[in-house]
Amino acid sequence: MIYVALLRGINVGGNNKIDMKQLKKAFEDAGMHHVVTYINTGNIIFDSDIPSKTDISRILEQAIQDVFGLQIKVLVRSIDDMAKVMDSLPEHWTNGQQMKSDVMFLWDEIDDESILEQLQAKPDIDTVIYLPGAILWSVERQHVTKSGMHKIIGTKIYRQMTVRNVNTTRKIVELMLAAKSATS
After folding, report:
1. With b meaning 16 or more CB within 10 Å and e meaning fewer, what string describes 129-165?
2. Which domain of life, per UniProt (predicted)?
3. How far, in Å, CA of 55 to CA of 89, rounded?
């Protein structure tokens, strides 16, 4: 099965620095196959025979601890999980000069539609969509500072998610599909 590991909080603001070549090797040494990294913020596409995403997360978190001495949370999503995100992601959403659009991947502890009640989204500014495993969020760039979603930064909820912009998310899925074709 093709998976993506989404690491939370690496190579951001000079903290938790991890070299991607070393990370790739750490994944391979942990038993993952056909490992590909995408940008420095911790997006790793790989193949594994391990059926449990929880087990894979645990193995990879331990590998990162062993190799880099860092306690980094690793969220694992299958190619099927990511296809569901793509099916729900409006095609016109972009991350550019006119619009800011993100996918907030949720840890199991907060993965429930009731999470929307805890967000401070402003319906007249923010567009927010829940789907199992993620929240999709978009706002026009001119209204970013007025968005209520920025108020979650630093909260307990925020520490239980990892965020990728829609451009990165689409590229991850593209790489996962290429990996699936290569291993078929």
Report:
1. ebbebbbbbbbeeeeeeebebeebeeeebeebbbbbb
2. Bacteria
3. 28
Do the Cβ atoms of 50 and 59 come closer than 8 Å?
A: yes
Contact 64, 40 (CB under 8 A): no
In terms of pTM, does the model score above 0.90?
A: yes
- Which domains, ranges and CATH numbers included, belong to the chain? 2-81+173-183 (3.30.70.1280), 82-165 (3.30.70.1260)
- The residue whose two tokens read 């290429």 is 178
Order of strands across the sheet with 134-140? 127-131, 134-140, 99-106, 161-165
Summarize pLDDT for 120-158 with one digit per residue, the tens: 889 899 999 999 999 999 999 999 888 988 788 888 888
State the Cα–Cα distance between residues 152 and 129, nearest whole angstrom: 16
